[in-house]
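TICKET #2291
ISSUE: user wants both folds in one file
ATTACHMENT 1:
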Amino acid sequence: MYDLASKCSVLLAKDFVHSAFTIILNEETRNSRSLYVEMNQTVITIYPRLKISKMYNFSFTEENCQVLDQSLENSTMNSRQGINKIEVSDQKGVSVSCDFQYDLCTVTLAGWHHGVSAGLFGTNDNEAGNEWMVPNGSLTDNVKEFTQSWQVNKCSLVQKKEKPCPITAKQNICKVFFEEPHSLLR
């Protein structure tokens, strides 16, 4: 777990072999972020703080943005939206889910995508030793170098002074996410 010291859009995960998916964390205005998810010529942009999503299909000649509960015809992407949750997936085993209540998004990849992706989420090949691979294939143990290497646009870096969290704060975060009776992650 690490903090992004960058105010840049960064590549979280991309299938570099089959180009089946791309997931980018975009920096928006006013310290807001959006999640750009591309699968099967369809893009969904999720704005967790606003609790909305927009969909765009490359097969159409013009942009067709709309809220997610109005699904696009001929789309090969499935989408479900609840009160505090949105999930998008495709038939090839890529799933992105955002829980707005906890401000938490997850990416799940089926075995078909084993070892073909890279980005800030690592290499997805069950090898701990190469999780911090940069785009040129070399490895780093420097958080700043790692996050900068996966930037997808030019932007300014915000220098953060890293101060370690006290043990009790880390334990409290884990308790809220995994032990509280009302947590969906319990």
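ATTACHMENT 2:
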Amino acid sequence: FPIEPTEQTLSLYAIYECHHIEPRSVDSYLSGICSELEPFYPNIRKIRSSALVSRTLRGGKRLYSQPVKRKRALTSDDIDLIFTRLHQSTQYDDILFLAQLLTGLYALMRLGELVWPDRHELRSFSKVSRRTTVVLTEHSFEFTLRTHKSDKQFNGDTVLVHDDSLAGPRVVNLFKAYLSFRDRTFPCRAELWLRRNGSIPTRSWFIRRLRAIFPDDSSVAGHSMRAGGATALALAGVTGSLIQ
């Protein structure tokens, strides 16, 4: 094959990858390749958007793509079950898990915004929420999300939960209870979310605790929080554009 990329070589590469990975991911692979090659081949973007490459991708998706397997949204019954089981616990990690779960649910947060990745090379303190950003009122709490998946400008966002929302007062009270535990145990630490052993909670730690409550339901996972919060808002009559 010629070293200089052409419509034919990108098309062959796309269909080759479709045999080995989910075809919906090949778009991302090609975007990364174009980003790397553009300084050397300025017309690579034009080749990438050519009819041959675009049709090859469409054909690959039709031939090899698998149905999307979405995780089940947490329902109000699920939340009542979890809350009833854990809210009277005196164990530090139980209160931490419940506070994270309900905060993520009602603030529509991704699990990755609450915990650390399992892979050490992906961890960064620049993404860890800080205790000093927490603002408490009688009826609400808020803290700063320093950066996240959709934060293209790295400006961060404020996460706000108020007790007159779907969350109700129990979530605000639970967060305050966790904060009280945390401040007594780790008065000099900067991280907002900390386990009893002093480590930042990881994705696998959170998922293990969630699966322990739903041992026979593999459709419940980290994204179930965000999906459950969005579903609850929709059922309450909130418009789709506002939820988004």
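RESOLUTION: both attachments delivered.
EXTRA DETAIL ON ATTACHMENT 2: Residues 103 and 171 are 7 Å apart (CA to CA).
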